[in-house]
Design brief:
Length: about 350
C-alpha cells in the first residue's frame, strides 16, 4: 500500500479549495451575462464547499483523532496505567510510526519498572537480613568481650608468674596476639552494627593524615616498608571527625603495608581536587584482580585469611557520612591507589551550617 505523507494530506484541502475558487472565478467571468450559468456556478460553489468540508473532516479523523488518543493515553499512563497503548499504531504512515514508537517506548518502560521493582525487593530483603545479622553480631560481641577481657587478664597474670627462661612465654605471646585479634574483630562488628555518630569540626586534614601515618609507620618499620606523607600547602580547614577520618586513613595504610610486602612503599598524599580535599593512599603491592575490585567495599568480603571484611565497608560509610567519596584503582603487579574526597567548605559560616545539618540528621 503506497504511503502518503501527512503534511501532503493537510495541504490537499487547501489546494483543492484554491483550485475550485479559481474555477468558479473563470466560470463567473465567462458566463456573467447568462442566468443559467449562474445556477451552474452556484451548484459548483456548493459542491466545492461540500468537498472541502469532507476533506477537512477526513483530515481531522486522520490527524486530530490520533492526537486525542495520544493525549488520553498519556493521561492514563500518568495515572499509573503502564498497560495503556495508542490505537493508531497499525496505520501505515508517519502517524502510525509515531504510535508504534510510543507503544514500544512504554513497553520498555514497563519492563524497566518491573526490573527495578524486583531489584528493590531483593535489596530490601537483603537490607533486612543484614540488619538482623548486625543486631545479632552486636549482642554476641558484647557477650564475648567480657570473658575475653578475663582471658587477657589471666594471660597477663600467668606471664608475670612464669620464669624468664620458660618456653611457655612464647605460647603466651601467641595467645595474647590471638586475643587482640579477636578483640579487633569484635570492635569492627560493633562499629558496623552500631556506628558512632561523627563529631564534625573544622580541622587541618594534614594533621589528621599525619596522625594516621605516624601510627602506621611503626608497623611499616617492623616489616621493612617505607610509609611516607606528602602534605598539601594552603589547604582550607576541612569539616570532619578527626578520629573517624584518621581511622579510615589508618585502615587504608595498613592494607597498603600488607599488600606492599618487605621492601615496599606506601605513600599518603594530601592535595586538592576542585572543591574537595583529595587524599590518596598508594602502595607498591601486588594489586587487586579486576574480578575482585568491584566487591572490596562489600561487608564481610575479604581475601585475607585473618580479615573480617568490614574495614573497607566501614571506611566507605564513614566517608559518605562526611559527604565525601572513596574509590580505588589498581593494576595487578603494580599496586593500588585509594582516593578519598572530602568536601571543602566555601567559608567558615557555610561549614558551621553544614555541621548543624549533619548533627541534626
Amino acid at each position: 500500500m503506497p504511503r502518503l505523507k501527512w503534511q501532503l494530506k493537510a495541504f490537499l484541502p487547501v489546494v483543492f479549495a484554491l483550485f475550485n475558487g479559481l474555477l468558479l472565478f473563470l466560470l463567473a467571468t465567462l458566463s456573467f451575462s447568462v442566468p443559467e450559468r449562474h445556477q451552474v456556478l452556484e451548484l459548483a460553489a456548493a459542491g466545492a464547499v461540500v468537498i472541502c468540508a469532507a476533506l477537512l473532516i477526513g483530515l481531522a479523523l486522520a490527524v486530530g483523532r490520533p492526537m486525542v488518543d495520544l493525549q488520553q493515553t498519556i493521561s492514563k499512563i500518568r495515572e499509573g496505567d503502564l498497560d495503556a497503548r495508542v490505537s493508531f499504531a497499525s496505520r501505515n504512515d508517519e502517524v502510525g510510526d509515531l504510535g508504534r514508537s510510543f507503544n514500544e517506548m512504554f513497553d520498555e518502560l514497563r519492563n524497566s519498572r518491573e526490573e527495578i521493582q524486583k531489584l528493590h525487593r531483593t535489596q530490601m530483603s537483603r537490607a533486612e537480613h543484614l540488619a538482623t545479622l548486625g543486631e545479632m553480631a552486636a549482642g554476641l560481641a558484647h557477650e564475648i568481650r567480657n570473658p575475653l577481657a578475663g582471658i587477657a587478664g589471666v594471660i597477663d597474670i600467668i606471664g608475670r608468674d612464669l620464669p624468664p627462661t620458660s618456653p611457655a612465654r612464647e605460647v603466651l605471646k601467641d595467645m595474647r596476639a590471638e586475643v587482640q585479634h579477636i578483640n579487633r574483630i569484635l570492635t569492627d562488628l560493633l562499629s558496623t552494627a552500631r556506628p558512632k555518630q561523627p563529631e564534625y569540626r573544622l580541622a587541618n586534614i594534614n594533621s589528621t593524615a599525619e596522625h594516621a601515618v605516624l601510627i602506621a609507620s611503626e608497623q611499616g618499620r617492623e616489616k621493612n616498608i617505607k610509609v611516607e606523607l606528602s602534605k598539601a600547602e594552603n589547604l582550607p580547614l576541612v569539616l570532619h571527625d578527626e578520629n573517624q577520618v584518621s581511622q579510615v586513613l589508618l585502615n587504608l595504610l595498613l592494607n597498603g603495608i600488607q599488600a606492599a610486602g618487605p621492601g615496599g612503599q606506601v605513600l599518603l598524599n594530601v592535595g586538592r581536587q576542585d572543591g574537595s580535599a583529595r587524599i590518596t593512599v598508594t602502595d607498591t603491592g601486588h594489586g587487586i584482580p579486576p574480578e575482585i575490585l568491584p566487591n572490596i567495599f562489600l561487608p564481610f568480603f575479604t581475601t585475607k585469611g585473618r580479615g573480617t571484611g568490614l574495614g573497607l565497608s566501614l571506611a566507605r560509610r564513614i566517608i559518605e557520612n562526611h559527604g565525601g567519596h572513596i574509590e580505588v584503582t589498581s593494576s595487578v603487579g603494580q599496586g593500588s591507589q585509594f582516593i578519598v574526597l572530602l568536601p571543602l567548605p566555601d567559608s567558615h559560616a557555610n561549614a558551621l551550617a553544614f555541621q548543624g545539618q549533619e548533627l541534626h540528621a
